[in-house]
């Protein structure tokens, strides 16, 4: 916590749960490892993402954003406290960060046809744009203008909203989005903020985590356990579209954090109704995080 004794204000950010079909595993999810020198979640495997940049709020981007009739970014995020500008910027941030960190571009041609990256020349051109974006020498809107692209916000499905606990010096208000890997594209880390990466079934990622092969932080762990319930991508997207979204501000306890639906959660502003069938605590045991909770009767899960 800052020297003032007041919690740091969380910065608006976005992260993308990128998924793809797989002939043997039904479907896989993408995660990448943060650099060992990162000041936040070093070496943890995470979904790609980052905080809103000034360019994500650029008015010029309105000319390159595609939304179906009646699509309201703020309504989809289920957060009336957001301005329309910030809500739209979170979708844009998700698209930009995914492209910068993985090379995956969620976009269409302006005529509505899919972006097909089937030639070496097309891929080399986009790779150059990615480098320029990461270096701050161009913007999404400039790339869209040159390549005749639009960014379809409806391809991002809001999934969750996690807020970094108040005792930490670096805090983020992060919107999680679900998105399918576009056809003819592949993901590769930028070898900067993110180094190694993997595509795997959520169950396989969790197995590797419990075997201490990889590091996961509580929001990623909880999300992967939720994703593992879905047998196919159609079920996953259908389930996510009907999912309740509310701010999740973990409350710290002794060797654990409590989630808003925990019966003993004490931050009134964020408290949610109890759901005994769902883990409500994330506990540090034997050096790794594990989900758990308490029953209404007081017995431990």
N- to C-terminal separation? 32 Å
Number of structurally distinct domains: 2
Instruction: Please report the number of helical segments.
Output: 7
How much helical structure, as a percent, in the residues? 10-25%
> What is the CATH topology of the largest domain?
Nucleoside Triphosphate Pyrophosphohydrolase
Beta fraction of the residues?
15-25%
Structural class: alpha+beta
Q: What's the level 1 CATH class of the largest domain?
A: Alpha Beta
CATH superfamily placement of the largest domain: Nucleoside Triphosphate Pyrophosphohydrolase
Fold and architecture overview:
- It is a single chain.
- With 301 residues, the chain is α+β, with helices and mostly antiparallel strands.
- It folds into two domains: 11-249, Alpha-Beta Complex (Nucleoside Triphosphate Pyrophosphohydrolase), CATH 3.90.79.10; 250-301, no CATH class.
- The protein is 25% helix and 25% strand.
- Strands 1, 2, 3, 4, 8, 9, 10 and 11 form an eight-stranded mixed sheet that branches. Strands 12-13-14-15 form a four-stranded antiparallel sheet, with helices on one face.
- The longest helix is centred in the first third of the chain and has 19 residues, at 84-102.
